[in-house]
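Justification of computing resources. Each target in the renewal requires a structure prediction run like the one illustrated here; the chain below, 137 residues long, is used simply to show the kind of job we budget for.
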Amino acid sequence: MVTRLNPYLNFETESRAALEFYHAALGGTLQIWTFGEYKMTDDPAYADLVMHGAVTSPDGLTIFASDVPPGGEPPVVGTSINVSLSSDDTDLTPIWDKLTEGAEIVVPFEIAPWGDRFGLFNDKFGVAWLVDQNGSL
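Resulting structure tokens:
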């Protein structure tokens, strides 16, 4: 049996755009289910919003997202949690370059004092990311 811990991001109405963006950066498969598809609303304003979506990369990285359900409260945007991406054997530079398009770079992706390549950014959707690549690459 495998146990996984995956980030699940909540947006007011941007889940589709965010998932498509993450899919372009991570590759793999993109799955999106809407509130309308599952008859969760009769309101046309919610019908095409994402009830549940997932990007699963070829390496098995998975990120989930959803929009606010009908009658729900908008999420509070903040950076108290970072999505952490790390690797001991893969060059993360191409993923960093794609994910930081339109982002606020907090710490550039450079060699850190502990020898790893490390960086922090807030992506164009306001999601905070931490990227750490083992220094032996």
